[in-house]
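Incident review: delayed structure delivery

Summary: a single-chain prediction request sat in the queue longer than the usual turnaround. Root cause was a stuck worker, restarted by the on-call engineer. No data loss occurred. The affected request and its eventual output are reproduced below so the record is complete for anyone auditing the incident later.

Affected input:
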Amino acid sequence: MLRERDGYVSGQELCDQFGVSRTAVWKVINGLKEEGYIIASVPRRGYRLEGAPDILSESELLSRMKTKWLGRRVIYFRETDSTNTQAKRLAEEGAPEGTLVAADMQTAGKGRRGRSWQQSPGMMVSVTFIIKPGFAPDKASMLTLLAAHSVAGAIEHVTGLPAGIKWPNDIVIHGKKIVGILTEMSLSVEQDSIHYVVVGIGINVNITSFPEEIRDMATSLYLESGQQVNRSSLIAEVLLRFEQDYEQFLKTEDLTGILEDYNAHLVSRDKEVRVLDPQGEFTGISRGMNADGELLVEKEDGNVIRVYAGEVSVRGLYGYV
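Output delivered after worker restart:
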């Protein structure tokens, strides 16, 4: 209520809304102040929120959500092994579609091909949400591309930074990686339908430095903008955009709805790339992604190869991007 109101909210209004005493309201206000919220208290006027800390909590995240169903149930961990691991456990236990798992710190974050990493508290966005789609399993890989598009747009909206996409799902700023996305699917017992999909997103937000071995490839929103970014507001924007992209996707079951904007963000478009395919690497000109999520690469002889995501890696001819 404080966040939604520009001015003051009277103590009596809070009492009436929640059916509690003024003493109870006073205790909760003081609790919020102890957490770091800046709240002005003026006799006969009430309370006004003047500033919020960069904290993650169930109530903080829920108070920022603008979605209809995604992220309307939040499971928050101050510390956990991996939000993807926790989301899969919850999905197996019957957690509803749209459930969001968020952590202030991961001790065993998961990346592609089983890679893991550790992080410090307060520095990253580490979230995973549960999707229970009714489409065929072979469509599920496109959810990763949807997520990349949603995250790129959210970063640009919140920070003003130019976020590019390195196909299929890495987000880069000024040539350095800033986001990793990992989707994992569980099939039904019959293996012919999707039980659930978890979409995990890790964003380097307020990290101030990186180890020397990855300094040339990784960056953070803080390093690129020079400003601290509120993680809860960024998460809320990511989920809002994904919900919109996903609902559009369900109408066509392909990437038609985001195709033009995705390709506008594609950092390799019309540039020479190297395709690292286990069956043999080759070079060509990236001509953008098609509606099925495949990267179109034009070889020197004019043939256009459709590159599938997976074990294939696409890199710029002279580096990561």
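Verification: The two ends are 44 Å apart (CA to CA).
Action items: add queue-age alerting; document worker restart procedure.
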